[in-house]
Amino acid sequence: MIATLGAKAVQDVVNAGHFGRFAWRSVLTSMRSCTARRTYPLVWTQMNQIGVRSVPVIMITGAFVGMTLAVQAYDQLAGMGLEEHLGVLINISVVKELGPVLAAVMLAGRIGGALTAELGTMNVTEQIDAVRSMGTDPIRYLVAPRFLACLLLTPVLIIYADLLGVVGGALVSFLQLGINSRAYWGFSAYGVDLWDVAIGVVKGFFFGGAIAVISCYKGFTCEEGAQGVGRACTEAFVASFISILALDFALAVVSKNVYEVFWPLKSLVG
Amino acid sequence: MVEQTKNDKKQEPGPASPPAIVEVRHLTKRFGKKVVLDDISLFIAKGRTTVVIGPSGCGKTVLIKHMLVLLRPSEGEVHFEDRRIDDLSEAELSRVRTRFGYLFQEGALFDSMTVAENISFPIRQHYKVKDWRAIEDVVKSKLAMVGLDGFQNSYPANLSGGQRKRVALARAIALNPEVILYDEPTTGLDPIRSDIINELVLKLERELGVTSVVVTHDMKSAYKVGDRIIMLHNGKVIADGDADYIRNHPHPIVQQFINGQVSEDDLAVLRMAGAASAAQFLPRDFDS
Ligand SMILES: Nc1ncnc2c1ncn2[C@@H]1O[C@H](COP(=O)(O)OP(=O)(O)OP(=O)(O)O)[C@@H](O)[C@H]1O
Ligand SMILES: [Mg+2]
Q1: What is the pLDDT of residues A38-60, one digit of tens each?
Q2: Are residues B85 and B199 both part of a single domain?
Q3: How far is CA B227 from CA A67, B20, B198, B224, in A?
Q4: Which of B125, B129, B175, B184 to mutate against chain A (most A CBs within 10 Å)?
Q5: Cα–Cα distance measured from residue A151 to residue A156, given in angstroms and rounded to the nearest whole number
Q6: Is A136 helix (H, G, I), strand (E, B) or coil?
């Protein structure tokens, strides 16, 4: 019993080590292939597959987040007579937290699943070994383009989600809740900094990178058979989801400290 | 240079034999607790064709994957042209690997690419291509070698098993490698097509001095292409020599394998199972 637990713990540490090495090599290789002209077409293909087809689903996610927030928050604010501040609350939440996180979760399901299934199938049919056998590094050929595409596109998709979230929240506030639009936008502009938007977008780089590395790793280490591929996809989604939340927390802490140190300097510059 | 193994005289290169290009020293491979290859030492002579035979599951594929370091040994070493390669990093290995061609047992074609893209993949990866016509010509000539010219734009999913195997062979020889490792090149092909592949192996050896390692179950093609035949059994080399040596090998397992005979023990198991299964289910077991 103890032996089994011990063996499992050792295995977990070994796996974590493998993942760490894989992640490190992926990031290094991707950075290096930024300068190699021949990776551009590969990245372009991936961006089309990953990005373009994700736009509708991301926009729908964003819109519903904004709309739901409006409905939920209205009662609480109205109770205190602060309903005209609704815009600040919605827009801050959408831009800083809910937009990025929910968009990333959506992408973890949509892109992460597809990446893991694709690479996992290539792995079990020996196509990854075939790439190696011909003297090509599979990390450079398969992982780097997907990593770069996720890294570049997730922030863009988050901006889409933010946009639709803001619009959705505003529409519900004006049309259904009857809030004065001048006041709504006025308080919003006062309460939402460029900083808040920037934080949300920066989160996107981290989320996108994490989704890509985790999904590719799960694909590369996937076990034989259709069941193996299925299990790898599930594990990839769960792992991506947890990393998104953990990264979100870590980034919140970091950004708060950075903000307190550097943002006041803005007044000196401006 | 060639380390000699004491127990098998046949492994020593005679005075006239060419130098080894690939050499495996005391190779042991385990998957978990299971020992698949057990302290194997052998060399592959340059410019010759070496055939590896052995029962299904005995580790033939695992052995030739080590020659390209697609798998790393649990113990032992792999050498290519006097240089140890099993401890190189993947990046360092890629230069070595371009000098090899590897035909996967299941083909391992890229299913998202057409036949032509599959075959030109290694070329596009290793050369700066300006002249696309030249690539088309190479693809055409390699496909013609395996009798599939005209299939350039098909996808692997739309080919038969034997056709896929031949496309994979065309891809393996795309870079004009010096060493080609064939994993069951004739399995799944009709007898005539098999013989054409045998001729292709011989032609590459004769005209381009290619070194070949052919894994096969097909004794006819083993005798035809093999300058030397190695038989694996239970992770060990049990026979190693030219076709005549193997034909007259005294070991009963070798004789059973090359003649395709079932051993008495296996037959006994089969008889038992047959008797049992006839009595096992009766139709009325299924309606209740
Ligand atoms: N990645 C792996 N993990 C675990 N076991 C493996 C792995 N690859 C091969 N094996 C085991 O090694 C043994 C030898 O496999 P191998 O594929 O080399 O057989 P083979 O001689 O090529 O058989 P066949 O003629 O049927 O292709 C098998 O028992 C197989 O279960
Ligand atoms: Mg095999």
Answers
A1: 778 888 988 888 788 888 989 99
A2: yes
A3: 76, 14, 13, 9
A4: B125
A5: 9
A6: coil
pLDDT at A68 over 60: yes
Task: Report whether pLDDT(A130) > 90.
Answer: yes
> Does residue B49 lie within any of the structural domains?
yes
Type of residue numbered A152? L
- Closest residue by Cα to atom 20, ligand 1, is B57
Domain that residue B45 falls in: 19-99+178-264
Q: What is the ipTM of this complex?
A: 0.84
Asked, for residue B287, whether it belongs to a domain, the answer is no
- Ligand 2 mean position, distance from CA A106 (Å): 41
Q: Is the minimum distance from the CB of B56 to ligand 1 under 6 angstroms?
A: yes
Nearest alpha carbon to residue B139 among B108, B170, B161: B170
Same domain flag for B157 and B196: no
pLDDT band of residue A180 (cuts 50, 70, 90) is confident
| Amino acid B61: pLDDT | 93
Tell me the two tokens of residue A111: 């892109």
Same domain, residue pair B78 and B184: yes
Domain count, chain B: 2
Q: Is A224 on the interface with B (CB under 8 A)?
A: no
> Looking at beta carbons, which residues of chain A come within 8 Å of B171?
134
Instruction: Return the pLDDT at B278.
Output: 56
User: What does the domain layout of chain A look like in residue ranges?
Assistant: 2-258
For range A21-29, the mean pLDDT? 89
| Average of per-residue pLDDT across A199-226 | 91
Tokens for A259, please give them: 């903000």
Ligand 1 pocket test, pick from B60, B65, B105, B213 with the greatest ligand atom count within 8 Å of Cβ, gives B60
* A124 contact residues in B (CB cutoff 8 A): none
